[in-house]
Every structure is written in C-alpha cells, then in structure tokens.
Amino acid sequence: MKLHTLKPQTLLTQSNPMAFSTGIRLLRCYHHHFTFTATPSRFSGLRKTSSELRLLSSVTPPPRKQLRPVSARRKEEEVGDEGNGSVILTDRGENEGGNGGERVVLTELHKEATEAYMSYAMSVLLGRALPDVRDGLKPVHRRILYAMHELGISSKKPYKKCARVVGEVLGKFHPHGDTAVYDSLVRMAQDFSLRSPLIRGHGNFGSIDADPPAAMRYTECRLEALTESMLLADLEQNTVDFVPNFDNSQKEPSLLPARVPNLLLNGASGIAVGMATNIPPHNLGELVDALSALIHNPEATLQELLEYMPGPDFPTGGIIMGNIGILEAYRTGRGRVVIRGKTDIELLDSKTKRAAIIIQEVPYQTNKASLVEKIADLVENKILEGVSDIRDESDRSGMRIVIELKRGSDPAIVLNNLYRLTALQSSFSCNMVGILNGQPKLMGLKELLQAFLDFRCSVVERRAKFKLSQAQERNHIVEGIIVGLDNLDEVINTIRKASSNALAAASLRKEFELSEKQAEAILDISLRRLTALERNKFVEEGKSLRTQISKLEELLSSKKQILQLIEEEAIEIKNKFFTPRRSMLEDTDSGELEDIDVIPNEEMLLAISEKGYVKRMKPDTFNLQNRGTIGKSVGKLRVNDAMSDFLVCRAHDKVLYFSDKGTVYSSPAYKIPECSRTAAGTPLVQILSLSDGERITSIIPVSEFAGDQYLVMLTVNGYIKKVSLNYFASIRCTGIIAIQLVPGDELKWVKCCSNNDFVAMASQNGMVILTPCANIRALGRNTRGSVAMRLKEGDKVASMDIIPDALQKELDKTLEVNQRQRRSMKGPWLLFVSESGCGKRVPVSRFRTSPLNRVGLIGYKFSSEDRLAAVFVVGFSLGEDGESDEQVVLVSQSGTVNRIKVRDISIQSRYARGVILMRLEHAGKIQSASLISAADADPEDENATAVAA
C-alpha cells in the first residue's frame, strides 16, 4: 500500500466526511505500508537520492489483523493543477479488477475544518454560552432550577445544601465540572448580579467587593417564590418539550414555561465562539407594562414602548446618563449605556467649609473594593487632587464610601475627576444576542418581546390542550359512572353473573354501550360511592367539567383570549413581586465628560496687549494699593507694545473677541494658558484664526446666551448699533461678521446690555451722552448702525459703559428730584479716568438723558494735553457707609498696573480737573482700565502697601 503526493486540486466530499481523519490514523498505525514519493516539479529543491521517503513510527501493527490495502494515487486525468493540495484515498477490494470493491473518497481540508469548527461553535452557542430568548436561561441555569424543582426545594421548604443541588445537576443533567455549576447557582442568588434573584441563598454567597462565596458544602439554597411563579409553574402540563439527558436515562425540559420575559428581566452575559451577548436587566413592573402595551397594540413603535419601559434597571442602582445609547440598543440590539454611581455632598465643617463626597451606589458590575483602591492610588500619585482621606463605611444596611476633601477643594471638580478617572462612571455595552429557533440572533427590544409573546402563546395553547384532554377524559369516565349508577341493579347483576373481570367489563360494554375505560371505572368504584349523595357529586363534577371544556375550547379558538390570559398572568406576577426602580434616568445628551467639567469655574484676570498677546492670571495677582501710587508691572511686553484691555471673567465663560475689522471670534476662557504676572503671554493667533493686520479691540466674557441680552457696539467714528446676543451663540473658528464698517472706521467698544439698561458714551474731549438702550434699534450682524454722537472737529469717541437695570430706579429718582437734591453727591457715579492718570467721580444725576446724534454734556474739563481714557458706571455695590466697594485696575502703556479702591477717588463736579490716580512720570499714558467688584478683592490685601514695578 503506497501513498503518493499529489498536485493541488479541488476535492469534493462524498460518502464519508471523516475519511481524511481516518487516513491519518492509518498513517500513524501502519507506517510500513506507506511511502511518500516527491514530485520533481513540486519539490525540485530535494536531492534526487531523497525522492522516496518513509514515514517512521514507533507503533507496530497487530500481526493477527490483515487489512485491505488503501493507496493514494494521482488522478491527473480527472483533476487539474489549480487545487489546494489534496489527497485521494482509494479503498480496493481483494480483487483489484472488481468494480464493487473500490471506494474513492474526495474531501477538502478547508471544508472539513470549517464543518468541524462550525459544529463546535454551534455546540458552544446552544449548549453553554447564549441564553434562549424564550425563557432567558442558559442550559446550566435551566438545569439547576429544574433539579431544585425535582428535589422539592421550594420557597416554602427548608434550605438544602448547595452541594446536594450541584451533585443532582451533575449526576442527571449537566456533565461538566462542579465549579461551573456552583458558580452559576451562586450568581442566581446574588442580589447585586440579578435584578430579581431566582434562588434564595443562605450563607456566604460573595459580595460586591468580589469576595468569593463559601464552599458549596457550607452554603444552602432554595427556590425563590418568583422563580416558582414565573418559570416553573405549569411545567407538568405538557407546556414544553422534554428531551433526553446526556446518558438518555431520563428526561429534562428543553425550556421552562416562563410567564415574564426573563431575558430582559435579569439580563444575560456570555462569550461564545465568534459572538457574545450582554443584555442589561430591567424592572419587573416596567417590563410587564411594556409587554401589555405590545399585546394591546402589536404595531406599537419603540417610542411608545419606551413610555412604559424607559431604560434598564440595574440591581446596583446608579444613574443612567442620557437615552441615546438606550434608544440605539433597543432599536438595533447594540448600544452603549453610560452609568454613574450615585453620590452626595456632605458638609463636614461649616467654618472651614470642608466637604466630603459620599458614594452611595456604584455602576453595575463594578468592584467596590477595586474602586476604593483605584481612588487611593490616584490620590497617592497626585493625579487626583483635593482629597484628604478615603474610608469605606459600607455595612449590611447599605453602601457608603466617604471621600473627605481638603479645605478649599471644589466638590464638583473632584467628583467630575472621579467620573473621568475611575469606574465611578462606566459604560454597559449592550449586545442583545439570544437563541431564537435554534439560531443565535441579534434583536432589538420589540423583537425580543414579540419572540417571547409567540413562545408564551404556544405555552398557553399547549397547556389549554393538555387541560382539555384531561377534562375530556375525566368527563368521559364520569359520564360512564353516572350511567352505571342510574342502572345500578342491572350493573350489579351483570357483574355477579360474570366469572371474571374481563367478562364483567365486556358485559358492561355490550349491555350499556360503554367504552373500555368507562367499564373499568365502574368496576373500580367502591361500594360507599353507590349512595345517592355520591351520585349527585358525580353529576356536579360532570357539569363542572363540561363548563371547563367549553371555556378551554373557546380559549383555543380565540387568539385574543390567549393574549388576554398572558397579560393577566404577567400582571399577577407584577402585583406580587414588583419592586421600585433602582437606577435613575438623567435626561442628558451624553455622559461623556468634557474639559470644562473638570476645570474649576474660578474668577480670572485677562490681559491683552495692542499687538495681540493675551494671558490669564489669578485675581489676586495684583494686591490692593493706595491712590496716587506707581503700581505693579503687568509683565514683560514686546517692543513698541502696550496694554489694550484688562478684564475679569470666569474660567467657564465663553470669551467673544471683537476685532477692529468688525469680526468676532470665540474661545472658552480656560483655553487661554495661565501664566505668571511677569510672563509675556500667548499670541492670539495661536488661539484665534486672525487675518493679517487684524487686531482684537474688545473682549466680552459671556456666561449664558440669554434671549433678552444684547451687545452694543461703538466704533471710533461714532457709529453705534445693538445686536441680539443669540446671534453669537455659535461662532465658527474663522469668525463671523459683527458689524459692517465704512472705510477708515474701526470697531473699538462692545458691551453687553438689556433693553432696560442705559448707555453712557464719552468722547476724548469729555463730552457725555446718556441714552436708554431701548432707544437703540436692534439690528442684524451685517449692518452698520446709526450715529451715536455728534463729534466736534478733532474729537473722537473715547469710551462707553452700561448703566444696568439694577440702578435704573435709583437713576430715575435722582433725575426727578428738585434742583437742590440734584446737587447731591450720592451714587451711582460716572468714574472718569484721563490719559494722564487723573480721575474723578461725578454723580449720574448731574447728567440728563438725551437721544442719539447729539453733542452731549461736558463731563470732564481737560487741559490741552490731556484726554479721556475711560469712563465707568460705579456704585453697583455699596458698603455700610453708602460708599462704593468696587476697585479699579489701571494699566499704563508700559504695562504698569495699579489697583485702587473707587471710594478713594473723590466726587467732584462735571467741570473739575480730578485727582491723581496713578503717577506716570516714566510710564507713558493710561492705556486701559477695568472694574473689579468687591467680591474679587482678597480681604487680607485690604491694607497692602504699594509695590513698585
């Protein structure tokens, strides 16, 4: 017998698909019958002396057995050269010339491997890893519950050792290891793994800290009442098919007659071959409501079902962030649900304002001990800041993880960092794959519910048929017994005359036209049941049976009644075992954390230079100083550069950058790099997409784009317009047009206002106009506006500020008083700052309101060399003495900054020259000024002395 190597060729499997493996076994056992011959064209690299090789083996064939030779040969005339390397096994009889003794088996290696692998994969899919859509159980879970049911370990019986149950399952139904069975049993008893546990455990069944359960010889178990009502009821009424067990010694159910979709109730997870499943658990009450909605309206949409079952309900609670992932999972079967642990903030010390974060619930399938350990590692490695201590105070009453914060730490920021860095926020990837009609299938919510309804209809129909058959059989016997009792004397005489039971039965069948079962029932009846009272009982039983038969026949003939019965049984389980929802739903777009979520919303100083350098500093960078001092340097400036603007905002604010060309750009405030006072800053071209020669002239921080807010824009040539703030809520990276400018004009000032506010404008020569914002017509972005002030020759607009609505009533009062009261020095005031460093306060009551396009009133009397640098409305916050609590920050062209109290600036008339605010012997002129509220000042800096540049 010889085996020759062949050219690659395509092989077709014929009668025996295992021929290849059989041939390999023959090769191993009978090596001396086979020789390999190398084909020169395929193995040209071999030496000619090695053209014939032998396969060596240590196995010796049994000498007493004579096998028919099996040879492999090349069939060049039948197969081409384009094959994949195949072997033809030829089985010849003793007479090679005979036709009946030869058998040729052709097989493909890849096809044989594919078939074997698919057979193995389907075995894993159906027999181990994936749950059935109909009862929501894997085979091991189904076998455990059935074994406990057979042992009689019901919810009302005493507990029995888990080892007893595991042994029963292994011996009768599940030929696998005891560890797999016990682990499955333990999981069905854990209230943190299953939303509605199916087994009641007694002993140590593990914990949410991933502590292992005690050995099965120590723990005890019994069925839950829910399991008996939901899965095991009607099991003996031919509701499901029973199949042979592994050794064909007895039967086991292929399914359990579930009354509620257990697959959605408790979920499932499993990894099979080539696919996996991960189905979230749900609330029993919501699930039954959704099932009822589908029964009443088979065409119900997913949105209608979500009205009853809005999302998963995890046994460990938590907060589900948004419904986008839920919608996708319910629609397609795949989706991502983001879950956050439930937390609370407790104040530990009201004086120091120290707080603590209390974790009360963790996301589903999160190890609490690992979570605490991870937080501790982050704190130790200084990745998570602001935490001083961590304690796990959980007990049997509930979970409680205490995270104490350091003094001054923002709990919201620390909590957002916990969400971002730890499993306190995690995602559940839904992959709703289940076995349907013997095949794994990915299904959405409605498809899962519909598949269960179809199965439940089959169960109810089979149960009704079983009960109908039993009722009909019993009714048949009762009718025969009643016939016998009606003819009692004749029956007794017939029985007495018969010589045997068989003859008696035959005589009764012949004389009274009874069936065999009826005759046997008459013979089996006892004498005590021959009384009239007993006869009446049989008559009543007959009526009851006929009524039952009628109802069952009506049920089987009506699909509507079957669905109604399914709904009633599901609602009965809901009313008996319903528990409130544990997982809360939060209506957000997504649970993803952005940078803004982990950045404190602290106040900050923004400084911008004429050449477009910006930097962010802490508000306490500049200490409070006295009036008339030199001030502190704002930092290094480029050659020929000067400070342009200086303002206060918060880190979460959206900063609008307005350029001299009328274009507006946008960027979050926290994206500006923070630096020290002496740093030069960051070029704006690295943050904004500025064009060549474009300069930022005004910066507006916006916390919220309210519908009743507007931006008032003022140009150098005196054009003003009002635009709704909503137009700037969404700005592309290349900017959008804010105002249409005429040639030679520049956008210089932008302020935020409402219709109830007033606008105060001043020219460089000190002329002032006060006008209500309501008088300025709201326009679109791409417009020029109207003339604000009638400027004299050589004069230009110098500044603009807003008198807010909070001061309107006070302003109205002061404007309506008599002449004597109008000379009062009470606030609010207009604070004037000149380029030479002088300034004064003038009561707003000294100015009357006027329409636009007017010359205005004199507000400051300047010398020929001096001009107005800025004007502010002050008096928003007043101290107990009625004086202003604000502070003003002055910035010179050379970058020197002076921060002084507004109350130190004297109140003077409109024609006064003012007092010295900042000495500018070698510091040029005042470039910009900014107001800071009293809340921005550090109390410890109240008596700070002047600091030189």
Summarize the structure.
The protein is of the alpha+beta class and 949 residues long. Helix content is 27%, strand content 23%. Strand 44 and strand 45 form a beta hairpin.
Give the secondary structure arrangement, pairings included.
Blueprint: H1 19-29, E1 36-37, E2 52-53, E3 70-71, E4 88-91, E5 103-106, H2 109-129, H3 139-151, E6 160-161, H4 162-172, H5 178-187, E7 199-202, E8 220-223, H6 225-232, E9 242-244, E10 251-253, H7 262-266, E11 268-271, E12 276-279, H8 284-296, H9 302-306, E13 319-321, H10 324-332, E14 334-340, E15 342-349, E16 354-361, H11 368-380, E17 387-392, E18 401-405, H12 411-421, E19 425-431, E20 433-436, E21 439-442, H13 445-486, H14 488-497, H15 501-512, H16 516-524, H17 532-556, H18 559-577, E22 584-586, E23 603-609, E24 613-617, E25 632-633, E26 643-650, E27 654-659, E28 663-668, E29 682-683, E30 696-702, E31 710-715, E32 719-724, E33 736-737, E34 747-753, E35 758-763, E36 767-772, E37 778-779, E38 786-787, E39 797-803, H19 808-816, H20 819-822, E40 829-834, E41 838-843, E42 857-858, E43 868-874, E44 887-892, E45 896-901, E46 915-916, E47 926-932
Parallel strand pairs: 13-22, 32-37
Antiparallel strand pairs: 1-2, 3-4, 4-5, 6-8, 7-8, 9-10, 11-12, 13-14, 14-19, 15-16, 16-18, 17-18, 20-21, 23-24, 23-26, 24-29, 25-45, 27-28, 27-30, 28-33, 31-32, 31-34, 32-38, 35-36, 35-39, 36-42, 40-41, 40-43, 41-46, 44-45, 44-47
